[in-house]
Write a sequence for this structure.
């Protein structure tokens, strides 16, 4: 079920009061599970059953790990869980990519290129990358001894399928959700108010902002890559940067707001990422829960650093790790190992987002910016001494980073990059028909920085007044969103 | 005690949220319910209008209104001995800047200048590219199966018997191709291979492609619209804000780059040209004399709205091509409407395409003159053959 639909509003209107009326945690957990199943099955019943299967595998594996005394036995169950979960992910998400690359290689070597027919008809289950990471982290946490396995499958199913975060995150740890599943769910006026406001903000970002920017992005990237001028690519990537930010942070807002209605306080997933002064700061503000997951379950193990149970939270993002680079994580580690871990982590991060070389290029781009930041103290000092200039530079770096993400292929992304860095491709008399798109990109940029200043300098001074203005303001946002709810458009992150 | 007052405060805030949402919904939907997106697209103080003959017969149509014009023509028993001209074009033909009572379209003035036995009918579409003109032509000439057979049986001809076809060529409208969906479903589009799908069948087909959630959403929305009819008007609100956004953002853009020149992509232009020649050739096959004219454009603009060399080059090439055929004529009417008769576009820029009533008077008279001076196709063909003969004997 899409968040940006009347169906979802009706769903919340029925489910949330039912949860408030429950008398026991178990009753609530049954409702969470059933409601989440319905939420997912509105799209596809068969894939809803796949989520249940994935949950069942991890429930059994984690129980076996917890009850087993033999380390070998534990490792075997962990291996089984990882194989099944990652196997499903590889089959559904990466088989087409793998076969097409094998086919290209075969053709290159003189053989006859062919891919099985079933590949083209394969459908990617919604949210498979998200719930797979969530279930994997649970089993790993049980293996590491960070989390005790839950004895009740209904509780575990409610955690895996919990509808606000099922399809596109935020990716939460068992320790953050399972205890709340047992205690939360009662009516609380403050939670209801905060939840409604966050949902209104999210709907507005998606329905009014992201969906209004989308046609401009389409218009620019529909032009053949080598026809575009430098200014066109800049306009396209800036507009796409805003589109994906509004789209994805909208999803997180609606997810967090929906959970808040029933008392769950999820950490925020986005925190004004485009006002960052450095790559480190950007990655502690963008998709924080994924960054934190990658940090704890991939990067730290790859560096060989000791695992610390106190760090297991979906907060801080991957940027939080960067802040400790020079101290804890990299102490007594060979720089080559951390650098290798960095590259590998970002390539995997890229492939997590999509099965294509352009996504790997996206990962490499960000690994390179982070590495430069790490190695050059000049850059670090620059952001301290010239914060405004550093913010603008980082804005440009972050926006350029969306080029491979939006491109259809790595070669197309390289063409766009080539156009951006070529001073001869910056004429102004070319695509004047796109003047609206240039202006929209510029207007969004100016408005965002103006809003950031307004928020920091002005709004904080009207504490009491904003308490009363806030519901009215959010009411307007909600009304505008309901009016603009004309056609259902998917969230960009559904494809991941 | 403190907990209870906080709870009351939060409940009051939730009530504020609900009231604000409902209030804003009603206010927003009411404030834009009369907004007409097509009028906005025409520019500041420019309105679209229709024309009728004194006897009430429809003289002009806009967009999908073409279907009504066809019905009018189909039923018409007028002018059994007279001439009929069809005038196809874009919004310039149906829009008047600073319109007041008594103002008329060019087609009205053309009819005034022609004898009563010659009637000019006009079909135009906003931003009508050649695919859309072609669609209108099809709509007026190829009757739906069944109707065509009836007409053939009754009148011995399935077409509507035009003698002249006038085509307004607006360079700017070559930037787009294809027939917009709103027009597609109303025209008989033989060249686009659109099947004649019954509306209900078409809807069933579309619905079957929807997933469970989409079907559920559709039924929810139709129930909401039934309970709150004002909610049906929400498309107008979106259109209003989209157009306002476009207006202000474009103004901002023009402030950054104040001398824009709009380019027509050559590939798109070529595709449009195919539709133009399909239209022209079809008319010629039916023995209709075709008149193509370069639509009036606001004169004196610096820089010109389009790259001037490309604009002039296009018309020069077209003229050269037209000269090869005796039954087609080309007329350059680019500068016939003086600069003071033009308005402003919605973004506050000089409107290059729509003019005042006096401009329509000038254009109408120019078209009437073209039609009066034109020879019948058979005559023209004979003349062309004679010229050809002379030239070959001279060689």
């Amino acid at each position: 079920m899409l968040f940006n639909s009347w169906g979802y509003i009706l769903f919340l209107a029925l489910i949330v009061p039912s949860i408030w009326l429950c008398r026991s945690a178990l009753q609530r957990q049954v409702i969470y599970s059933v409601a989440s199943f319905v939420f997912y099955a509105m799209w596809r019943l068969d894939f809803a059953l796949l989520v249940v299967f994935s949950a069942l595998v991890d429930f059994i594996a984690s129980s076996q790990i917890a009850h087993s005394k033999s380390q070998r036995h534990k490792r075997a169950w962990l291996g089984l869980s990882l194989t099944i979960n990652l196997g499903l992910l590889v089959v559904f998400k990466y088989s087409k990519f793998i076969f097409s690359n094998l086919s290209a290689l075969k053709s290159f070597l003189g053989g006859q290129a062919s891919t099985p027919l079933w590949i083209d008809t394969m459908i990617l289950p919604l949210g498979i990358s998200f719930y797979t990471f969530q279930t994997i982290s649970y089993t790993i946490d049980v293996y590491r001894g960070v989390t005790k396995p839950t004895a009740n499958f209904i509780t575990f199913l409610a955690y895996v399928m919990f509808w606000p975060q099922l399809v596109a995150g935020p990716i939460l740890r068992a320790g953050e959700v399972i205890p709340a599943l047992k205690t939360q769910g009662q009516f609380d006026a403050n939670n209801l108010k905060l939840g409604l406001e966050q949902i209104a903000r999210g709907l507005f970002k998606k329905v009014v902002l992201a969906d209004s920017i989308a046609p401009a992005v389409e218009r620019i990237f529909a032009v053949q890559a080598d026809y575009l001028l430098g200014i066109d690519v800049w306009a396209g990537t800036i507009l796409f940067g805003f589109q994906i930010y509004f789209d994805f942070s909208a999803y997180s807002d609606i997810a967090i707001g929906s959970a808040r209605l029933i008392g769950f306080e999820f950490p925020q997933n986005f925190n004004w990422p485009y006002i960052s002064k450095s790559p480190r700061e950007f990655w502690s503000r963008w998709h924080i829960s994924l960054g934190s997951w990658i940090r704890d379950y991939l990067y730290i193990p790859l560096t060989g650093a000791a695992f610390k149970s106190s760090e297991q939270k979906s907060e801080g993002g991957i940027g939080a790790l960067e802040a400790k680079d020079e101290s804890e994580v990299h102490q007594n580690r060979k720089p080559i190992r951390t650098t290798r871990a960095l590259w590998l982590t970002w390539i995997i991060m890229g492939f997590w987002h999509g099965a294509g070389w352009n996504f790997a290029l996206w990962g490499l781009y960000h690994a390179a910016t982070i590495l430069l930041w790490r190695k050059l103290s000049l850059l670090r000092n620059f952001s301290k001494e010239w914060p405004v200039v550093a913010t603008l530079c980082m804005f440009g770096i972050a926006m350029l980073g969306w080029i491979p993400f939006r491109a259809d292929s790595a070669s197309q992304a390289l063409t766009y990059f080539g156009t951006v860095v070529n001073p001869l491709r910056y004429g102004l008399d070319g695509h004047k028909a796109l003047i609206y798109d240039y202006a929209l990109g510029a207007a969004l940029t100016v408005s965002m920085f103006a809003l950031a200043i307004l928020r920091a300098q002005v709004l904080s001074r009207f504490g009491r007044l904003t308490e009363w203005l806030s519901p009215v303001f959010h009411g307007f946002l909600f009304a505008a969103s309901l009016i603009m709810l004309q056609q259902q458009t998917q969230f960009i992150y559904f494809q991941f | 005690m403190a907990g209870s007052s906080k709870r009351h405060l939060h409940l009051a805030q939730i009530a504020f949220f609900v009231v604000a949402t409902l209030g804003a919904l009603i206010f927003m939907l009411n404030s834009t319910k009369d907004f007409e997106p097509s009028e906005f697209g025409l520019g500041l103080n420019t309105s679209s209008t229709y024309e009728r003959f004194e006897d009430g017969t429809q003289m002009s149509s806009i967009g999908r209104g073409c279907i009504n014009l066809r019905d009018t023509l189909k039923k018409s028993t007028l002018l059994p001995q007279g001439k009929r001209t069809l005038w196809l074009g874009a919004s310039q033909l149906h829009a008047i800047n600073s319109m007041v009572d008594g103002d008329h379209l060019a087609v009205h003035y053309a009819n005034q200048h022609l004898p009563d036995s010659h009637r000019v009918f006009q079909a135009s579409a906003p931003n009508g590219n050649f695919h859309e003109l072609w669609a209108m032509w099809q709509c007026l000439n190829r009757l739906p199966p069944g109707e065509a057979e009836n007409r053939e049986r009754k009148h011995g001809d399935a077409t509507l018997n035009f003698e002249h076809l006038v085509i307004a060529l607006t360079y700017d409208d070559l930037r787009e191709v294809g027939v917009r969906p709103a027009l597609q479903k109303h025209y008989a589009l033989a060249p686009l291979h659109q099947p004649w799908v019954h509306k209900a069948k078409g809807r069933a087909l579309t619905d079957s492609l929807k997933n469970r959630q989409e079907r559920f959403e559709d039924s929810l929305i139709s129930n909401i619209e039934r309970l709150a009819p004002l909610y049906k008007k929400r498309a107008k609100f979106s259109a209003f804000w989209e157009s306002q956004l476009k207006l202000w953002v474009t103004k901002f853009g023009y402030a950054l780059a104040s001398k824009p020149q709009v380019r027509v992509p050559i590939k798109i232009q070529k595709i449009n040209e195919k539709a133009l020649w399909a239209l022209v050739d079809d008319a010629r096959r039916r023995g209709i004399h075709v008149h193509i004219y370069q639509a009036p454009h606001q004169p004196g603009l610096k820089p010109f709205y389009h790259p001037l060399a490309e604009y002039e080059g296009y018309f020069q090439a077209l003229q050269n091509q037209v000269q090869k055929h005796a039954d087609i004529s080309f007329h350059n009417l680019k500068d016939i409407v003086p600069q003071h008769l033009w308005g402003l576009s919605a973004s506050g820029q000089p409107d290059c395409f729509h003019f005042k009533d006096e401009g329509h008077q000038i254009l109408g008279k120019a078209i009437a003159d073209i039609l009066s001076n034109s020879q019948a196709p058979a005559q023209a063909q004979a003349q062309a053959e004679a010229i050809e003969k002379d030239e070959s004997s001279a060689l």
